[in-house]
Amino acid sequence: MNGMQFLQHALTGISVGGCYALIAIGYTLVYGILRLINFAHGDIFMIAGYFMIFSFAVLPFPIAIIVTLVLTTLLGIGIEKVAYSPLRNAPRMSVMISAIGVSYLLQNLATYLFTAIPQPYPEIPGLKLRIEIGNISTSFVTLITPIITILIVVGLLYLVNKTKMGMAMRAVSRDYEAASLMGIKLNQTISFTFAIGSLLAAVGSILYFTDRSTVFPYSGSLPGLKCFVAAVFGGIGSIPGALLGGFFIGICETIIKAIGLSTFSDAFTFIVLIVMLLIKPTGLFGEKNIDKV
Amino acid sequence: MLKVNNLKVNFGGIEAVKGISFEVKEGEIVTLIGSNGAGKSTTLRTISGIVKPVDGSIEFEGTDITKINSSDIVKMGITLCPEGRRVFPDMTVLENIKIGAFLRSDDLSNDIERCYRLFPILKERNKQLAGTLSGGEQQMLAVARSLMSRPKIMMLDEPSLGLAPLVVQDIFKIIQEINDEGVTILLIEQNANMALRIADKAYVLETGKITMEGSGKELLENESIKEAYLGKKK
């Protein structure tokens, strides 16, 4: 592989990584606040793909994008209300099982409603434009994905660290009861967190599927798991960690495919998970526990 | 100001509070004393809306607040400074102070100054993470945080827990100062001696029932209280 080819693959990797990062942030946010691995997150991402297909069929594309974002956000909030919120005082294991249930429900619902045949993903005008830089040829979407991702992360960090809502999110993620005593509304804060997570999954979904061209009911499960690994790698609960994890998994995966080991690229992701759990279970930027009494 | 009527609360499958009634008048310091498991914390958590009672009612300034959620209760001017301090360890001291005013949208600078005046140590440490403070400092921070909601009545759950005697004295002095500024205090304590000394009115809680009441002074001199809570030898 010469330098140019390497650059070409690195660019693709960064782009895939950007999508992964957006989904990984969803895992991390929800984990931060509910201590729950939201296994349905990858499927929310898949359903967002279908939302886009159907809204694009009847609406002009800018409105279709907005409709997709809004519907996916509502789906995320709805899932929390129906499947997780009634289990607020139940053991964590019950909530996790509920999440797995929601994941299967969404996959099977999609199969039932839309069949298992891959549906063509609409082409958003301009996004697939070929761009040549020197010897590197790439599409517009590949170029803008990492930029969009980084802008979103900067905005999100501002939201979490500087605004009142962010303060509420951080307080709830630390201590439900103390947060309620401050007057923070638990359910409202949790819904808001799911809304943000699902919104990012929808953005990720648009960027990801534009590159892949088809959606089928299981197209969320593997990316979902990979992004979960990305979140764990970066330190679950940490937003910069999820960003870094997403880019890391995306780039490694693309390079491995490029050197001819495509068969192993998925296996690699899970080896990363195992190795990380063995040497640093809290991930790169995992929660620091300040234990001082 | 605050009236609790025949309050019954279940906690962890048992009836922790078995029908208690008491009253807190405006401007007073009222204390509930009693040993572990007497139902003191449960009572306060119920008043603040975190736990719902099985029976009975809670009235604040003439309104029934039994079924109101915790956020609105804070808004009405009731705040609870919880047992074990519960400051947010990964936020700075200043953020912890500010979060106490979560429901307010007006200017906080005067209130922050007031906290710094009451607890100068917090000003020195305002950029430090709350988790790195000592126990006494965390307790001061917890009190400061509660004050930020501009409460009419402040409930304190075991503010002396696990603190050195000198620090306990400081905390109690500040509780009195806060009371002098016009905030009504409902205090629960295992350190009955300290609590009774500053209390206008005191209730003794034993396994979910009020067994005795009187002014702080009366209970301080009561023989059976001395035996049970103040460590006097028979």
Summarize this entry quickly.
Chain A is mainly alpha-helical and 293 residues long. Chain A has helices spanning 3-34, 41-58, 61-84, 92-114, 140-162, 164-174, 176-181, 186-212, 221-234, 239-258, 262-279, and strands spanning 119-120, 130-133, 136-139, 214-215. Chain A has a two-stranded antiparallel ribbon with strand order 1-4. In chain A, strands 2-3 form a two-stranded antiparallel sheet.
Description:
The complex is a heterodimer of chains A (293) and B (234). Chain A is mainly alpha-helical. Chain A has one domain. Chain A is 74% helix and 4% strand. In chain A, a hairpin with a 2-residue loop joins strand 2 and strand 3. In chain A, helix 9 (221-234) packs across helix 10 (239-258). The longest helix of chain A has 32 residues, at 3-34. By secondary structure, chain B is α/β, with parallel strands linked by helices. Chain B has one domain: 3-Layer(aba) Sandwich (Rossmann fold). Chain B is built from ten helices and ten strands. Chain B has a six-stranded mixed sheet, sandwiched between helices. In chain B, strands 2-1-4-5 form a four-stranded antiparallel sheet, with helices on one face. In chain B, strand 4 and strand 5 form a beta hairpin. In chain B, helix 3 runs parallel beside helix 6. The longest helix of chain B is centred in the C-terminal third of the chain and has 16 residues, at 165-180. The chains are: A mainly alpha (293), B alpha/beta (234). The A-B interface holds A 164, 167-168, 170-171, 174-175, 177-178, 180-185, 288, 290-293 and B 48-50, 69-71, 74-75, 79-80, 82, 86-91, 95, 98-100, 102-103, 129, 131-135, 145, 149, 162.
